[in-house]
Write a structure and sequence with these properties.
The protein is α/β, with parallel strands linked by helices. It is built from 11 helices and 8 strands. Phosphoenolpyruvate binds next to strand 8.
């Protein structure tokens, strides 16, 4: 009932030429993939050119961040409508690297999420606890605060335009994946929170992705969990063959 999403976050990697070459290879590798939404998130400068290459393919385009204002004196920022204009259907919001290095908070995540939805984008909203928080048994309270703050004031009719990505910070780029059971436990908790925030049908329909060192060899186990509806992939999304293998988890 929930169509899985496999999204690749390219972070600050690849020139325009490298991005175009990668999606040319990727789109033919996944041309016959069915029952999965495949999304790539290149750097801003490559979006429009990558969009040209993706025309007619089953690969969708995401940005890695956005601002919440439509236009104005906000030097350096990019509005959701401009991402749409560049061909994006999705935008990643609140990635832990933005929270850690660029002062992203639940308040700004909320503003960006509302603005993205208003512009017709699907918001991939990231949450996740640090290692210290997990070790001090604060995982659930951290996730609850991030979900409540990030989704504050958003109505149930907007919820289909949201995908949650659970990314334990200690598993991002470290090679340490949460076990299938650890991930499932938090995904169940998030789905319960979504039911409390909106209602049960919204929770049943919400895609909740796992992120943190997802690779071709661990994706199947994760995807076999009942509440894991896809993956947000960093490192392993940078090569067409490994990302295509992950996007073929159901083949
Ligand atoms: C990410 O950047 O969202 C991520 C999960 O990275 P990695 O797969 O490299 O851990």
């Amino acid at each position: 009932m929930r169509i899985p999403v496999i999204a690749g976050n390219w972070k600050l990697f690849k020139t325009i030429g490298e991005s175009v070459a990668m999606v040319q290879e990727l789109k033919s590798l996944v041309a016959n993939n069915q029952g999965v939404e495949i999304v790539v998130a290149p750097v801003f400068t490559a979006l429009s050119r990558v969009n040209d290459v993706l025309q007619g393919s089953n690969v969708m385009l995401a940005a890695q961040d956005c601002y919440w204002e439509e236009e104005g004196a906000f030097t350096g920022e990019v509005a959701p409508a401009l991402l749409k204009d560049a061909g994006c259907s999705h935008v990643i919001i609140g990635h832990s690297e933005r929270r850690q290095y660029f002062g992203e908070t639940d308040v700004t995540v909320n503003k960006k999420t509302r603005a993205a939805i208003a512009a017709g984008l699907c918001a991939i909203v990231c949450v996740g606890e640090s290692l210290a928080e997990r070790e001090s048994e604060q995982t659930f309270s951290v996730i609850e605060t991030q979900i409540q703050g990030g989704l504050a004031g958003i109505t149930a009719d907007a919820a289909p335009h949201i995908v949650i990505a659970y990314e334990p910070v200690w598993a991002i780029g470290t090679g340490k994946t949460a076990t299938d059971a650890q991930a499932q436990e938090v995904h169940t908790f998030i789905r319960q929170l979504i039911a409390k925030t909106f209602n049960q049908p919204v929770a049943d329909a919400m895609r909740i992705l796992y992120g943190g060192s997802v690779k071709p060899d661990n994706v199947k186990g994760l995807m076999a969990q009942p509440d894991i509806d896809g993956a947000l992939v960093g490192g392993a999304s940078l090569k067409a063959d490994s990302f295509a293998a992950i996007a073929s988890f159901n083949a």
